[in-house]
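Q: Structure tokens for this one, please.
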Amino acid sequence: MDGISLLVLIGTLSGTVLADTDPILHCRSCKHVADGATPCVYVTECTSECYVASSTSTSGVVTKDYGCAPRQTCLAPGTPIGRRQAKQASKTTFCKHEMCNTDVSRFQEPSTEPCVDASPSECHDPTHLATMCSDCEYAQYCRKSCGLCQDNGHNGVWYENVVLFDYDPVHKTCRHSSSVDPSICQSITQQNHHVSPVMENNTTLNHAHAKHDYLILVYYESFINLHFRTNGEPITNLQLSACQTTGHGRVDILLNNQPIQQSYTGTDVWNLRWQIHNLDSLHLNNTREFDLKIQKDSASHSYGHYWISRIRVESTIAHHVH
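A: Here is the predicted structure, written as tokens:
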């Protein structure tokens, strides 16, 4: 990378351009996460539906897979979407809303269809039930008995994640959920210090980089600062499409000078990938003016670049079921 001559930007940039379409759906995306262990922090863009697949081994150990897949696809046993497997119980639940596979019972609207067994005589017979539930198509006839019903809504309330802004710091374009006021996108101003843009890059390390433009935080004093203004919506999570070029491409991520991550090295190396940072613990619900700062690790002046391609901030709203 040092052999490539890149323009270093210093200054303040404004004039955010609004895009016409809603941001693409995001889902959590991890494999074999032990129940109760560290939460899944990776995110994928999705053109179908989010899912979470829970598997319980014969010894009682529960693991979960998170991702994106078409609901109508019945995959072979042993794949994440299988309903039952030979040596373990498995259940897969789909949902259609932003980041809803974080907790489907919380982030999916209640179904208006009753959850019943289409063939009660077979579904209530233990000898037939095992066979029915082992096939993802036949299991639909025994939805209640096979445990396929979704328990959505808590005390008449379900929740939805909405995108306050999905911002491209290279081209200064911004998208948001259709239910969100565009004034948040319009309020964004960006300040760069010792940051190098890479656009229409034809000298990439792999195919993934050919699809994305990005900014590089090059030096120990490099940073990006986004100032934005909300209308009082609580900010619940921050998602960054980013990576490091070496194990020393550390960064500090701060919101209104409160650390979200410090000396952070949790990104992939040489591979741009979405990650989520939960913000509930910052207690910023009564705040409307924000400064999001992403800077090279202030505690250690080390080598290694940090690349960033997109920045997404979300809120959570409540829907009351009548």
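A few notes: Confidence is low (pLDDT under 50) at residues 1-7, 75-87, 204-208. Residues 126-133 form the longest helix (8 residues).
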